[in-house]
Write a structure and sequence with these properties.
80% helix; mainly alpha
């Protein structure tokens, strides 16, 4: 078991004990927030996860042919479009030419660029006020431009040979540059396209969940094996428990580490809401968004930049990764996310300082 997961399980246990004893330590509400994610997690990932794996099991020849045609591994395509727990990992693992490339696309690329395009941006643009959108997207640009650095370090830790890693980073770098220019030169069109992409993935997830649920009650129409369905539900449960731990950890930090947050704010020259946002984003950047309008300009840019790679580093995404990958791959995932997120903050800090 990964050390970070073990620590979060301890926090989850603390939240559960507080819930048993009536919330005397004020951790039960944070624990409940984690529990409340189970339903949405099941809706968003179980259908895509099960149906994608079922469909891809019989398509080996097709993906071998696709890998022969493309100048890079076909798993890159799923990695740039889907978050790992929204099908990115399952699809990349099935179509990659090697286990290392599958982990690179399904864990590292999917948890950064794929998560940004399919989840973070559509939700952020739906939550933020129109006046806040411009600053948020300017910060995202820096996160996108520093993203390849985290991917390089993480890919090297996965054991990819440097020449192979560079070859597969080239299309990612090209896409990052195109996306950065599109967000800069045609922001309205780009934002609308990304919103449509996120909404389409969400609707597809709901439809596949409905089909999966129907197959449970009417087995004659089901194409998913019971073992695969059980595997998906176990992953959802693992993610929920870890999210409970991360929510409790955040609650404890906000309660007992105010001095550290103030010092962090002073070092970064931002207000305390911005420092809290950066910390919360490690668990989930979605919880950072309600604080966004209270941040100063510099803090808004730093939080947006950090969210491209650093978001969800210690939250439900980590729980999913730890459920499907070995300890060394989980470590590569963490390093990739943190290097990319911190690099974005540092570059923006120096430029905007």
């Amino acid at each position: 078991m990964n050390l970070f997961i073990a620590i979060l399980l301890v926090f989850a246990l603390a939240g559960l004990c507080d819930k048993i004893f009536g919330g005397r330590w004020h951790l039960a509400s944070a624990f409940d927030q984690g529990l409340n994610t189970m339903g949405s997690l099941c809706l968003s990932m179980s259908g895509i996860y099960c149906i994608a794996i079922t469909f891809l099991n019989g398509q080996t020849a097709l993906f071998q042919r696709l890998n022969e045609i493309l100048p890079f591994d076909a798993s890159i395509l799923s990695g740039v479009l889907l978050a790992p727990d929204m099908g990115g990992f399952a699809i990349a693992g099935k179509i990659a030419a090697s286990p290392e490339l599958g982990m690179f696309s399904g864990l590292l690329l999917s948890s950064t660029l794929g998560c940004l395009l399919s989840f973070v941006l559509p939700i952020a643009l739906g939550v933020l006020k129109e006046a806040e959108t411009s600053l948020f997207m300017n910060g995202v640009l820096f996160g996108i431009l520093t993203l390849p650095l985290g991917l390089f370090v993480g890919g090297w830790m996965l054991g990819l040979y440097i020449p192979v890693l560079i070859i597969h980073l080239c299309p990612v770098i090209l896409l990052c540059l195109i996306l950065a220019f599109a967000l800069k030169l045609a922001p309205k069109f780009c934002l609308k396209a990304l919103t449509i992409l996120g909404l389409s993935i969400r609707i597809l997830g709901l439809l596949l969940f409905a089909y999966l649920a129907a197959g449970i009650f009417f087995p004659q129409i089901s194409v998913v094996e019971d073992t695969l369905l059980l595997e998906a539900l176990v992953i959802v449960l693992k993610i929920t428990v870890v999210v409970c731990g991360s929510m409790v950890a955040v609650q404890l930090a906000l309660t007992h580490c105010k001095g550290i947050l103030r010092r962090t704010a002073d070092v970064l020259h931002v207000n305390e809401y911005a420092a809290i946002g950066l910390f919360i984003s490690l668990a989930t950047s979605i919880s950072m968004l309600p604080l966004y309008e209270k941040m100063d300009r510099r803090g808004k840019l730093l939080n947006a930049a950090f969210s491209v790679s650093g978001a969800f580093c210690l939250g439900g995404q980590l729980a999913f990764v730890s459920s499907v990958a070995d300890s060394s791959s989980v470590t590569a995932y963490l390093v990739c996310k943190l290097v990319g997120g911190i690099a974005a903050v540092l570059v923006l800090y120096r430029r905007d300082g």
